[in-house]
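Kindly inspect both lines:
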Amino acid sequence: MAIKTFAAIYIGSYEVSLKVFELSPKKQLRKIDYVRSRVELGKDSFTKGIIGYELVEELCQVLKEFRRMMDGYQVADYRAYSSNVLRDVSNKLFVLDQILLRTGIEVGILSNSEHRFIGYKSLAVNPFFEKLIQEGAAVADVGGGSMQITLFWKGKASTTQQIDLGLMRLREKLSHIEDRVANYESQILELIDKELDIYRNLYLQGKKPKYVIMLGDYIGDIIKEEDKQEDGTIEAARFLKAVKRLSRKNSEEIARELNLMNEQDPLLTASVLLYRRLAEETGAEYVWIPGTNINDGIAIDYAQKRKMLKPEHDFDGDILSAARALANRYQGYTGHTEVVTDMAVVLFDAMKHVHGMTRRERLLLKTAAILKDCGLYVSQVNSADCSYEIIMASEIIGMTHLEREIVASTVRYTGNPLAPYEEVKDKMDQQSYLIVAKLSVILKLATALDRSHRQKIKNVRARLVEKQLVINVETRENMLLEKGLFTVYGDAFERIFSVRPVIKEKRVFD
């Protein structure tokens, strides 16, 4: 592979950024330029729910300049993304159309989970990251509109939560009182403390990660390289001493101390206070500031999908770990869950030449099996529907919004009849609907094999024999209940796959 030049563009709440990279034949990624331009789209987005024409004009002018720079670097490919600053405005389609027509740049809109996952990828290529998460770490990704905190224990993601504590949103919430209160900083702290108190009580529950990893603007200016240890970390006590000193100053004084160009930047005070509270509330011993951002993640995501870079981190393991943590939160992870998950995978693998699905759908099936009983915490009568709502209301880092819809719908239709496509076409396309239909009927069959929740079956094996899926099981107990439901669900299975499932039982004795 020849050296490939790639550009990553991100349209944020208060600035638009461009990073240009070289992808070498040795599978290395090297930054060759980084440009940022202030465009405060969040002023309109978070207060009016629409982007005004003046800001659209300003944005297009910046992107035109980015296009000229990309041409100068002879960029072979690019990706341009935005997140909630454009995702949630009512004139999103018109803004994207204007950008494409006037600059030739096509902008994709990321869901929150997609946005955070791409940012998280910028960390996961760093070998030091693996060491930190083995010892317990909280990744705090601070943006303009919101913040995401993802907890890692023993090397795997446990929970991830979005919090409306973005720097631009904080400023806009308090902009009407900034000039009318004597202690503006205390008002910011009240907003921050309210949200972080809720997070600490619900998700930390007395646990303290050893490290807090901070991603976001300004943090690299607040803590200089000379303040860090050899491994790039800084002791939390030293970090807090530095930010507490800065938090007693106004934005002009902070800018002068940090040698920043914009002395009137209204986001400086909010950023110092937010990073300070993050270190205090997590109770971490060390702070790591890796210095990467969403642009790096965009480039790494692009390179990985084209097999130009090989990820060391097990992202699929994060998804399953987060699913188990969510199931445990709603007391839905049991011995039955483990057995059904294993049996569903056995059936999926035996059918691989028939169902036409990939390893990714296999992962979605495992996730659905883990989460299928979480709705029982809310209702025994409507548990499948409640499970759907819980899954859709929860973030699972590493999954797109559509994949979360597939998982949630698979769970819903494991406990309910499959809805006609016309009733769900606003949530998924036809291909996704077919995946839901296939996964849910596989999960139905696996669930039927342990309907009593007594784990009667051992050593499950399955293989295709002409038009039959022969499932061999060993058991020490009577299986009349399981066989009865197996026959009912077998009809639905045959309608979808044109294959008849057959169970062959072998009784074993101690």
In short: The longest strand covers residues 29-38. The radius of gyration is 26 Å.
